[in-house]
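Go through this fold for my students:
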Amino acid sequence: MSTQPGRTRGRSSRLLLTTLVVGGLVAGACSKKDDEAGDTDTPATTVVDDTTTGTEATAPPASDGGAETTVPDTTAAPAAASEPVYGGILRVSGEAEATNPWTPSAVQCDQYCYVRAAAFYDTLVARNADGEYAGVLVESYEPNADYTEWTFKVRPGITFHDGTPLDGAAVVYNLQEHSTALLTASAITDFGRNPDGSFAIELVDDMTFTIKTGKGGDLSQPRPWATLPAFLAGQLGFIASPTWLEAVKAGTGDPTMAVGTGPFVVESYAPREKLVVTRNENYWRTDAAGNQLPYLDGVEFRVIEDSETASEALQNGDIDIFATSAAVVIADFRELADEFPMPEQDRFVETNYTMIDLDKPGPLQDKRVRCALSKALDRQELIDLTGGGILQVANGLFSPGQEGYLEDNGFDTTQDIEGAQALLDEYLAENPGPIEVTYGTTVTAINSQTAQLISDYWAEIGVDTNIVQIPQDQYITKALFGDPDYVMFGWRSHGGTLVDAQYLWWHSSTAQPDGGLSLNFARLRDPVVDENLDAARGEPDPAKRQEYAANINKRMAEECLNFPGSWTLWGVPHQPTVLGVGEGTFPDGTEIEDNGGFFDVGGIWIDEAA
């Protein structure tokens, strides 16, 4: 196929699309303004994505890598804008329903899932505002000298909603549930395993337990794991009542009626409609001033898949708060700041990018083709036309502040049509014939526009693109199993700070061939990536981890293993009567930093006089 016709075709159709998109933005058209090209959250197995209050994070739990980490009891929380007010029902919306709710070992969590789950579950560990970890349901943890065994002490005096006491046995029961889980067990392959297949987790006394590590679970090969507590901050750290979990197993309990230790109790759940929770009158926590938490009478969680629709619902008074990574919507609310406050979350964020299934046979197996497609993209134009012009062009999957981020990783983010064409012509000289690729995205107008722009860039170098739009609730499943439609996908992921958080997404040990369930969605198998991920997992020194992570960053850039687009920005617009947003705290009152669209409803109150 001649490349010249494609080059002309791409420019003309993009000009038309530019007119339509810009016209729509200026006129405030009613088309959907959803997330960018990489808008898809990773599933529940994002157990270490510290863009939520408990999912991945930064430095080792203790600054010296080996000292015991405890939660001090003296630091006060930041001063609130007004005194908390009790009562009221908070109406929240989010973009997707959870799959397999709500047992911790089965639920597939996205950003909104974490917001809801944190209403009825507390986590074992969370990340503080300094990017370090501290305990929530555990009051301390400590590694042995070589980081092959960790000892955790459970906080006393806590009970589940059904009256079951929280103790070491309850925590161990929960963690063992993940040993046979379809998804989460794959995320923690280096937890040691006993001969019967259970995790090497043992009770020391009523409130103390240990976790031993082993390479691939093999205790005969001890596996140093310097950042292990980070994996107990997300889904693995959600602790449910073992009494309820046993009932669910026996068929006498309802898996959608979660029983945790959190600030709210599940009252009812209607999938894709509403989750209703009410105040836990016996909640174990108080705020920094000694006031009983939570402040609200209850919360109604709704599902509104499109961010523009949620925006309209907020402005119409139908909901009180939502989180969005749709940059166009965030830009709109910046203009409405006097009416609707909107905290923005831009630290340790995810990357919007194009993910490639590297198991798919065809031209994408060749580095020259991948690099040509990447060079053809005009990232700034994509941001200007579909991202409200407010995002930052990304040079890789490591955003500023993360381990591995480099201002210069060798990746040129500027569009280079001539360079792309040269690479493609070299490939075609050896492999005659047209190049056709498939690009997948979700079913929203803004993502359709993004996909069309990308298709036009590739048409300029003679590549034809088949655009496949897939419903959100099928998107992750297709990636997990390497569906035939899953060739290249718009994606959003990899927030947080620890490079170890990306182990399950990028290490070859988590990659299964197409057709098999693979948390390594890209089926990435690269010896340089593996070597540095392995080294980082056992490394307590942050400076050395940065070096290992930087090696991965440069390797991905060199091989064009993905096409970075922009770094995500999150906004949490809300009614002015909603206070306490972003003021979540640890049990001692020190600050938890919300990230990645997460906000803690347990510390929010409604003040009609505000």
Q: What stands out?
A: The chain has a mean pLDDT of 87. The first strand starts at residue 69 and ends at 70.
